[in-house]
Amino acid sequence: MRTEQFRLGPMDNFSYLLWDEKTLEAAVIDPAWQPGKLDDFIKAGELLLKCVLLTHAHPDHVNGVPFFTLKDKELPVYLHEADAFMLEHLPPVLKPLADGETLEAGTLKISVLHTPGHTPGSVCYLAGRSLFAGDTLFIGECGRVDLPGSSPEALYDSFVKLAALPDDLTLYPGHSYNGDTSTLGVQKEYNLYLKLARTGRREDFLKAAA
C-alpha cells in the first residue's frame, strides 16, 4: 500500500490518498479545501477511487466531499453515524461505520477504530502499519474537547485504546500541528496525553485536556 499526504487549506489540514500499487485502487481520507489537488494526483497516477473515508464530520475535514460525489454519485462515503448530524450536505451514498469492522476499498483493507472525544463519531483508520488519526491524536497533542459534542472522558477512553496499539505504527494526524508524522511508540513516550492514558492516570488526563 502507498500513502500520499496532502497539506491543504488555511488550517493546515491533512488529506490522504491510499492505494494499491498493483491494482491502483484507492481511497481518500478527509478530502478538504482543495480537492482538485487530490484529483490531479489521482488522474496523474491513473488511480481508481473506490471510496471516501471520513475521520469525523467537522467542516474543515469534509468540505471537499461534494467535489468527488458530484463526479461519481455512486461513490461510497463512510462516516460514523454519531457524526452524521453535522453534515450540511448528505452524500448520495453515505455508509455508517462500526468499531472493529474492516472496510474493503478494492484490494485495500482498512480497519475502523471508533475513538470518540473530539466528536461523538470520531474514528481512526488502521491500514497496514499506518494509523490515520484525524483530530483524535496529533503529534504531541490531543484533539480539542471544548467544542459541541466533545467529551474529555470519551477521549481518555479512546486514548487508552490507542495506547494498546503497536509501537511501530506510523501516525498520520488530521492537521500539521507540531509535525506531519510520527510513530505511535514515540508518541507513547513524549505525548503527555498518550502517556497519561497508557499509565491509567485518568484524572490527570482530564485536567490536562480541559
Write up this protein.
This protein is α/β, with parallel strands linked by helices and 210 residues long. The chain has a single domain (2-209), classed as Metallo-beta-lactamase, Chain A (4-Layer Sandwich). Helices cover 26% and strands 30% of the residues. It has 7 helices and 14 strands. Helix 5 (184-190) crosses helix 6 and helix 6 packs antiparallel against helix 7. It starts with a strand and ends with a helix.
CATH architecture term: 4-Layer Sandwich
Continuous helix count = 7
Strand arrangement in the largest pleated sheet = 1-2-3-4-5-6
Oligomeric organization of the protein chains: single chain
Name the beta content range: 25-35%
Determine the fraction of residues in helical runs and give it as a percent range.
Answer: 25-40%
CATH level 1 class label: Alpha Beta
Q: Enter the CATH topology name.
A: Metallo-beta-lactamase, Chain A
Number of strands: 14
Mean pLDDT: 96
CATH superfamily: Ribonuclease Z/Hydroxyacylglutathione hydrolase-like
The shape, in one word, is: globular
* Number of domain units: 1
Derived from helix and strand composition plus strand pairing, the structural class reads alpha/beta
